[in-house]
């Protein structure tokens, strides 16, 4: 199973997705430009892996937006995305995607869970793309762990 970690950085309002080898892509929630800015480290990331990174960043953007509207303050957001691809077929699509949200701060647990639910089930376009391609999507929320 592949795992991606996305960390939100308040100061720059960016979302940095990283794989197990330290490869990173920095995402910005600027909906006007809608750009992903690669961080050059003389390494490469495969397209399917970058899709998981985009999934984590897209959902993290939703979480920050929803928690802001709920007037919930947090000091840290980490999104861990794991995925499992089909075996012995071409193309090999993502068949399972799991998103684990880790939040720190003075948060109402019900509102944090609602933010995750809204992202996964309603707002995250990347997750919906994966779901429509047949991926089974699951998630969890951990507070102050």
Polypeptide structure, described:
Strands 4-3-2-1-5-6-7 form a seven-stranded mixed β-sheet, with helices on one face. Helix 1 (about 45-70) crosses helix 2 (about 110-125). It is built from three helices and seven strands, in the order ββββαββααβ. The relative contact order is 0.18. Helix content is about 30%, strand content about 35%. The protein is globular. The chain has one domain: K homology (KH) domain (GMP Synthetase, Chain A, domain 3). It starts with a strand and ends with a strand. It has about 140 residues and is α+β, with helices and mostly antiparallel strands. It comes from Moheibacter stercoris. This is Redox protein.
Secondary structure elements and their pairing?
Layout lengths: L1 E8 L4 E5 L5 E5 L7 E3 L8 H23 L6 E10 L8 E11 L4 H15 L1 H8 L3 E8 L2
Parallel strand pairs: 6-7
Antiparallel strand pairs: 1-2, 1-5, 2-3, 3-4, 5-6
Helix pairs in contact: 1-2
